[in-house]
Design a protein that fits this description.
- This protein has about 400 residues and is an alpha/beta fold.
- The protein has 3 domains: about 200 residues, FAD/NAD(P)-binding domain, CATH 3.50.50.60; about 80 residues, 2-Layer Sandwich (D-Amino Acid Oxidase, Chain A, domain 2); about 45 residues, no CATH class.
- The protein is built from 14 helices and 16 strands.
- Strands 3-5-4-10-11-12-9-13 form an 8-stranded mixed beta sheet.
- A hairpin with a 2-residue loop joins strand 10 and strand 11.
- It is globular, with a radius of gyration of 22 Å.
- InterPro entries: FAD-bd, FAD/NAD-bd_sf, PheA/TfdB_FAD_monoxygenase.
């Protein structure tokens, strides 16, 4: 692209904040404005997880923000799986995991962006017909419900696949030392949760079940406080008396959702380009959406730096990002499906459940009887990757 580029970024989530930082680092003369509908410091969600690989990428791309993110993150080195009344198993894992408060992450990125000269217009909601004047580039980083994408839906070709299960994203004051999976059997079916710390004061809990279990337990009734009371009882073993914390909707009901996996036929149209959740979503059970949003930001900034022609740069960005996305998208689909088919796995021995859970991303698992898969995995573990099973 030309030397000085005027960019309008819609949405002040991780994707756009990071994109603006990388653009300014390359050329401080770029004129970048971010329009965010929420006030500064307010966001949805609790904490997000990420892994060593992202850490290394962030350090390479912008050491200042990477350092601040690192200082505000907490780390765990093991996984605990708790299957009610049957077993609690702790597994030391090779790769460390990290958690950071989503609010803190956005605060760090917004501060860094502003320090580099990015303008952030908080509480400025954009509608689909907004006129961005003489902007060279409009970056739609306005999340899964992107208004810009929907306004040009005919061109972008968005497609949603709605997950069968229902989930809720909660916080708690219980600090989980390890990454915890807890499965609880009720008379209405299984309900499970995974939790991880994201600060010294709070952890995230994502709770999921089938719609039948949800209705059977009465989670579809009453206010959020009623849902939380039921869930606190069900997960009392892992919560140790700590409360679950929600964020009720305007009418006081709990924020239960079906996850929607989004894909788009194309990611750019004229001078508009989609990034992060506006372009694609991956099921939360692989904890990768934020990392992928940051990766989009980095690939887009690189493409704009390397290619002077806008259309060619956006095509190169789309091509590279889509190819990076293929493997996590497949893993996310398999992982979501694993939980949707939980009865297929959960009645096996605890060690088998833990192994199958750890490999829920596997392409093979849905097609191989679970007992046989487990046996193959054990052999593969001994001889090192036989048949493509195991790690
Ligand atoms: C339950 C759950 C758990 C998750 N856990 C993890 C995890 O552990 N690790 C991980 O990496 N990812 C996780 N994710 C995914 C992650 O939250 C998203 O992938 C990530 O936030 C995407 O970033 P983004 O910048 O594309 O969009 P968003 O974070 O959604 O940001 C979009 C921004 O745009 C603003 N906006 C929207 N519309 C407008 C408008 N019209 N005008 C102005 N502003 C607008 C919004 O207010 C928002 O600030 C999880 C998601 C869910 C649902």
């Amino acid at each position: 692209m030309g030397d000085r580029v005027k960019v309008a970024c819609v949405g002040g989530g991780p994707a756009n904040l990071y994109f603006s930082i990388l653009m300014k680092r390359v050329d401080p003369s770029h004129d970048i404005t971010i329009y965010e509908r929420n006030p500064a410091g307010s966001t949805y969600g609790w904490g997000v997880t990420y892994w060593d690989e992202l850490f290394n990428d962030l350090h390479r791309a912008d050491a200042d923000s990477a350092r601040a993110i690192s200082e505000s993150s907490v780390r765990w080195d093991s996984w605990v799986t708790d299957i009610r009344d049957r077993a609690t198993v702790t597994v030391e894992q090779g790769e460390a995991g990290y958690g950071i408060s989503r609010r803190r992450l956005l605060g760090i990125l917004a501060e860094r962006a502003e320090s580099l000269g990015v303008r952030i217009e908080w509480e400025h909601e954009i509608d689909g017909e907004h006129d961005f004047g003489d902007a060279d580039l409009v970056v739609a980083g306005d999340g899964v419900n992107s208004v810009l994408r929907e306004h040009h839906a005919e061109h972008f070709g968005p497609e949603f696949v709605t997950g069968q299960n229902i989930y809720i994203w909660l916080g708690t004051t219980k600090i989980f030392d390890a990454f915890v999976f807890a499965f609880v059997e009720t008379e209405h079916g299984w309900i499970w949760c995974y939790g991880y710390k994201y600060s010294q004061e709070h952890s995230t809990c994502v709770i999921e079940c089938t719609p039948e279990t949800w209705r059977g337990l009465g989670l579809d009734q009453g206010k959020e406080a009623d849902s939380l009371a039921i869930l606190e009882k069900l997960f009392a073993d892992i919560l140790d008396g700590h409360p679950l914390i929600g964020r009720a909707q305007a009418d006081g009901t709990a924020h239960w959702l079906h996850f929607r996996t989004l894909t788009n036929r194309t990611w750019h149209h004229g001078n508009i380009v989609l990034v992060g959740d506006a372009a694609h979503t991956t099921h939360y059970s692989i904890g990768a959406g934020t990392a992928l949003a940051l990766a989009d930001a980095s690939v887009l900034a690189k493409a704009l730096f390397e290619e002077k022609d806008l259309d060619k740069a956006l095509t190169a960005y789309e091509h590279e990002s889509k190819s990076k996305l293929r493997s996590p998208q497949r893993a996310a689909r398999n992982s979501a499906r694993w939980f949707e088919n939980l009865p297929r796995y959960i009645d096996r021995s605890p060690m088998q459940v833990i192994t199958l859970l750890g490999q829920r991303h596997s392409v093979m698992q849905p097609y191989v009887p679970p007992g046989l898969y487990y046996q193959f995995d054990r052999i593969a573990g001994r001889v090192g990757g036989l048949f493509g099973f195991g790690r």
